[in-house]
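hiii so um. not sure if this is the right channel but i have a protein structure encoded as C-alpha cells and i wanna go backwards to a sequence. like what aa goes where. can anyone help
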C-alpha cells in the first residue's frame, strides 16, 4: 500500500519514521550475523555499529512520540513500506571489506534522504514537514559521516578475489 502523505498525522509520521529505523536496525543486525565476525573492525562490525545507530535514532523518535502522544495506539504498520532505509538483502558479500559495508550503508542513507525529500512534496502539515525536514537533514549528516570514515579505507574486498564472482552472503 503506497503511503498517502497528505493524510498522515504527526503521530503517524513519527510512527512511520520509528518503523523505518527499526527495519534498518533489523537488517543491519542480520547482515552482521550472516557475515560473521572475522576480525575487529570488519564489515560485520560496521553493520553491528549501524544497527546501534539505527536503534539510537529510533529511541530518540520514540521519546519524542511518547512526549507528544503518550501511549496512543499506532495506526501505521510495516506493510506501508519496505526498504526505505534498510539496505537491500542482496548487498552483503562474503569477504566484504569494511569500506564495501560502508558503501552499502551510504546507499541506504541516500535512499532514506530521498524518501523524506519526496514525502515533503506531498505533506502540507507544517509539523510533519518540519519532522521530515529534520529526518532528511539527519540522513544527510549520516551520509557525511560515512563518507568521512570511508576516506581512510582501501577500496575492494578483504581478500584478493574477484568481487564480481563472489556469492551473496544471504
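sure thing!! here u go:
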Amino acid at each position: 500500500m503506497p503511503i498517502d502523505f497528505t493524510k498522515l498525522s504527526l503521530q503517524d509520521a513519527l510512527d512511520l519514521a520509528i518503523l523505518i529505523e527499526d527495519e534498518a536496525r533489523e537488517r543491519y543486525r542480520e547482515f552482521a550475523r550472516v557475515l560473521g565476525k572475522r576480525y575487529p573492525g570488519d564489515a560485520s562490525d560496521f553493520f553491528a555499529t549501524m544497527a546501534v545507530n539505527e536503534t539510537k535514532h529510533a529511541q530518540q523518535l520514540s521519546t519524542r512520540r511518547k512526549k507528544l502522544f503518550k501511549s496512543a495506539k499506532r495506526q501505521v504498520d510495516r506493510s506501508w513500506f519496505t526498504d526505505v532505509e534498510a539496505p537491500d538483502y542482496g548487498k552483503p558479500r562474503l569477504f566484504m571489506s569494511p569500506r564495501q559495508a560502508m558503501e552499502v550503508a551510504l546507499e541506504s542513507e541516500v535512499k532514506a534522504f530521498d524518501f523524506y525529500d519526496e514525502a515533503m512534496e506531498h505533506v502540507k502539515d507544517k509539523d510533519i514537514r518540519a519532522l521530515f525536514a529534520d529526518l532528511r537533514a539527519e540522513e544527510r549528516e549520516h551520509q557525511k559521516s560515512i563518507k568521512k570514515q570511508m576516506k581512510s579505507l582501501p577500496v575492494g574486498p578483504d581478500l584478493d578475489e574477484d568481487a564480481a564472482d563472489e556469492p551473496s552472503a544471504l
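oh and The CA atoms of residues 29 and 66 lie 25 Å apart.
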